[in-house]
Amino acid sequence: RSTLFPDPALFRSGIDARVYQPLLAGASLALRSAFDLSQGQIPVYGKTFIGYSERVRGYFNTRQEGDNRVILEAELRFTILPIRYFDLGNKAYLLGPYGDNLPFGISAGLFYDAGAVWDQSRTLHESDFLKGFGAGLHLHVPYVDVLRLEYAFNEERNGQFIFDIGVYF
Fold this sequence. Notes:
9 strands, two-stranded antiparallel sheet, mainly beta
């Protein structure tokens, strides 16, 4: 034990690994696994969450907190209408350069999400995981990037519509 570097009261490590694999005809497979693991005294502001920015589709509005978190996601994405870029030209003189190179396209996806949070005082079990699956339509539009319209089911087959922006992962 060093007096210069005493034992930390908190140790946290995390990893977020993603793979994007192109397939045939404009399709791709996206995979993600993310882990946040802690040891020691976790202050209330140091908890990890499912909900807020890290969600499980099928439990999109559910919020859980704990010392540790794992997220596993897979999505098969495919192009319906390839992204094309448009210029509004003189029609949008008020927009200036913001009227140039405007993207528009349509894609879709089939997804499966799973995630769990748990405290250090207990062991992670399969029953701790929230699991969801579904499909979505992704509109690639100017200024927003991606507008997602999805329908997700949880493991009890309860469904929910999801309206969100941005690429999920």
